[in-house]
Structure formats: structure tokens, C-alpha cells
Design goal:
The protein has 132 residues and is mostly helical. It has one domain: Large-conductance mechanosensitive channel, MscL, domain 1 (Non-ribosomal Peptide Synthetase Peptidyl Carrier Protein, Chain A). 73% of the residues lie in helices and 3% in strands. It is built from four helices and two strands. A two-stranded antiparallel ribbon has the order 1-2. The protein starts with a helix and ends with a helix. InterPro entries: Mechanosensitive_channel_CS, MS_channel, MSC/AndL, MscL_channel. Channel that opens in response to stretch forces in the membrane lipid bilayer. May participate in the regulation of osmotic pressure changes within the cell. It is a multi-pass membrane protein. Keywords: Cell membrane, Ion channel, Ion transport, Membrane, Transmembrane, Transmembrane helix, Transport.
Length: 132
């Protein structure tokens, strides 16, 4: 039983997942620092407050509806999404496109010559298809 568990843990997928979680956690810290310390102060300079948490409406039953907390979470989500897209996704797509272009430059663009036996088989197939 222990050997089977050890075998499961040493599979590539489990190790890859563990590395992804660690890197994802570190990346979360970087993105949160960017949003909290760079982007939100810019919004604060424009709007006047770094968060919208103080926006609230009092209900008739005395319940407080704090839509400002939701608005702050929504703005944070949009900023984090934009940061991930412009800092990670877009440059990565450019690198992949550059790599693919570079790989295709070394390839032949001319079609390869079909071997004689394949040509013969193609002719036999085509002649069998045509009505006699």
C-alpha cells in the first residue's frame, strides 16, 4: 500500500501540479502587490478613495447593504485580470508566435517528392475507381 502511494506521488502529473501550485502562489503575491501598491493608488488619485467599501444603502428593515464591498472586489478582479493579461498572457503569446515563426523558417516550403511506389499505388487506386 505504501509502495502504491509512493508510486502515485512520484508520477509526473502530481509533481507538475505541486510546482504549479507553488509558482501560482508566488505569482499571486506579485499580482496582488501590483494591484494594491501601483494600480489602486492610481485609482485613488482619480476617484479619491482606494476602495469603495464606504458605499452602502440602508434597507427599510434596518439591514445594511454594502454594495461598495462588491464594487471594490469587482474592480480588484478587473485589475488583476488586466495585469495577468498584459504582464503574462500577451508577452507569452508573442514569444510563442516568435518561436513558431523561427521554427518555420528552417523548414522547407517545397512539397516533398512522392516516392515511386506511392505514386504507383495511387495510380492503381485511381484506375480501380474509374468505370471501365
Amino acid at each position: 500500500m505504501i509502495q502504491g502511494f509512493k508510486s502515485f506521488l512520484m508520477k509526473g502529473n502530481v509533481v507538475d501540479l505541486a510546482v504549479a501550485v507553488v509558482v501560482g502562489t508566488a505569482f499571486t503575491g506579485v499580482v496582488n502587490a501590483l494591484v494594491k501598491n501601483v494600480l489602486m493608488p492610481l485609482i485613488s488619485a482619480i476617484v479619491g478613495s482606494p476602495t469603495f467599501d464606504e458605499f452602502a444603502v440602508i434597507n427599510l428593515n434596518g439591514n445594511i447593504i454594502q454594495f461598495g464591498v462588491f464594487l471594490t472586489a469587482l474592480v480588484n478582479f478587473l485589475l488583476i485580470s488586466a495585469a495577468v493579461y498584459f504582464v503574462i498572457v500577451m508577452p507569452m503569446n508573442k514569444l510563442i508566435e516568435f518561436r513558431d515563426r523561427k521554427l518555420h523558417l528552417g523548414q522547407k516550403t517545397e512539397p516533398e517528392e512522392v516516392p515511386a511506389d506511392i505514386q504507383l499505388l495511387t495510380e492503381i487506386r485511381d484506375s480501380l475507381k474509374s468505370p471501365v
